[in-house]
Amino acid sequence: MKYTYRTMGTCSSLIDFEVEDGILKGVHFTGGCNGNLKGISALVEGMKIDEVIARLEGIRCGGKPTSCPDQLCKALREICD
């Protein structure tokens, strides 16, 4: 299933992704640090949702209370609840 999540508190504004049988696919961030977000997308491609959350949840960017990887986790938690 395809999802779009509007981020809060980050340079990126949207995260588009798919989940199929609990596996994350097709992650694309709109805005933000292009190279870093392409890297994150490539690394999480094919991972189980719970593994992505375990590895990336709570990461902060600079002095911000969140980050793009943390926002991805918030999106994943939202669809799992």
UniProtKB/TrEMBL annotation:
<dbReference type="GO" id="GO:0000166">
    <property type="term" value="F:nucleotide binding"/>
</dbReference>
<dbReference type="Pfam" id="PF12637">
    <property type="entry name" value="TSCPD"/>
</dbReference>
<comment type="similarity">
    <text>Belongs to the ribonucleoside diphosphate reductase class-2 family.</text>
</comment>
<protein>
    <recommendedName>
        <fullName>ribonucleoside-diphosphate reductase</fullName>
        <ecNumber>1.17.4.1</ecNumber>
    </recommendedName>
</protein>
<dbReference type="GO" id="GO:0071897">
    <property type="term" value="P:DNA biosynthetic process"/>
</dbReference>
<feature type="domain" description="TSCPD">
    <location>
        <begin position="4"/>
        <end position="78"/>
    </location>
</feature>
<dbReference type="GO" id="GO:0004748">
    <property type="term" value="F:ribonucleoside-diphosphate reductase activity, thioredoxin disulfide as acceptor"/>
</dbReference>
<keyword id="KW-0237">DNA synthesis</keyword>
<dbReference type="InterPro" id="IPR024434">
    <property type="entry name" value="TSCPD_dom"/>
</dbReference>
<dbReference type="InterPro" id="IPR023806">
    <property type="entry name" value="CHP03905"/>
</dbReference>
<keyword id="KW-0547">Nucleotide-binding</keyword>
